[in-house]
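Continuing the series of single-chain predictions for the mutant panel. This is the parent chain; the variants come on the following pages.
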Amino acid sequence: MVVVLSRQTNDQLTPLCDREVGLYDRLVQEISRVTSPEHAALFARPEHIRDAVRWSAEGQEFTPWNKLNSTQQEKLLQATQSILLDIRSEIQDHPNMMIAQHFDQYRQIPSLDYLYAVDGKPVLTGWGYSGEKGSYDPLASVLSSVQPNQKNRWLVFPWVTALTALSAGILTSLLWNMYCHSDKVCYTTYPLAKDVEDALKEQDNNQALNKKRDQLLKSLELLKKQCKIPPVQPLEPQEVPKLNPLPEDPKVPDLPPVPETEPLPDQNTPKKQDIPQPKPEKKADLPKDAWDKKDKSMLNGCWHLTTHLELYEQRLFRMSHQPVTNWTLCFNSSGGAGRQVLTRKDGGTCTGPLNVQFQGNQLVLNQPTDCQGAFHLIPGRNVCTRINDKEANCTYIDAEGHRSTGTFKR
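Parent structure:
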């Protein structure tokens, strides 16, 4: 499932370098090739909608940085730094890649408030941008601690003696390895950030279980001192008495059947077919005269989708279609305001407000804000045309121009 993490207007963010079309897909492709898709998931997907940018990621639950305690914030920042160091180490062998040329800018964010925990994993929003107070580099503290000032040391260092000692040490090491370890090969595999994170979680769980075990042992020792538990005596089996079979029920003779009597007609009650029945009036749900007069009160009540309809959903790497099983539109007595409820085939629902207006001979149902719930339906509008007294044909057009058509009736 795709969750929307944050949204900013364009004037809140300043790009640190040029951002080409399709930048996110290319960035994810390059990082996945040199490291793994899990490393690429550190960067949230940007979606530019009119004058704003929306950041989303794959997941179920998310927590912003400012909602975490200090311990959780430290672990989340360490996991972010570990992933960025993995990427930085691998792209050094691929200097022609786009990510290698602009990695120093792409890893920066406006502030730590743009760091999120999605299903326990770090995700960066606002990457490659600076804010009103500048930008924040998660690797700044790490790189500064491992890059000392070597220029002054080199000027005063006795380099002739150092080179001689270094050459002698290398030669001695090579001769010793050829003599003692000529048939031995050693391979070293460094753990990924996710493996380290999982190991730390298992260590915390193990410590919690050990603490709980010690508490239970103390409670058991205290109970033993308070009262002595009596030994349990085994139960002796009892013999089951033998039961005589029950006597059979005496047979009851069959009674002759009683003939059915026909009911006598009630002369005081007239026959139903003799009483004229009033014919119910057929009231039009969408009367033509009210539609021509643009009377929105005819929408009072709830309307339902009666035909097959699919909505577009933006996934991390692709666009998918989601069938809609139920779409209900309900309006007040004046018909000017309403609310919609959508249910997809996967069981997810969302709700949102509606407002109504006529444009020429068409009825327009505007969705001013996102439909909130298990999924997000971005703002759009339904343009409806009257078919008959019972039905209207409506085409849903979202903010990105996608169209879906369905028939609604009361």
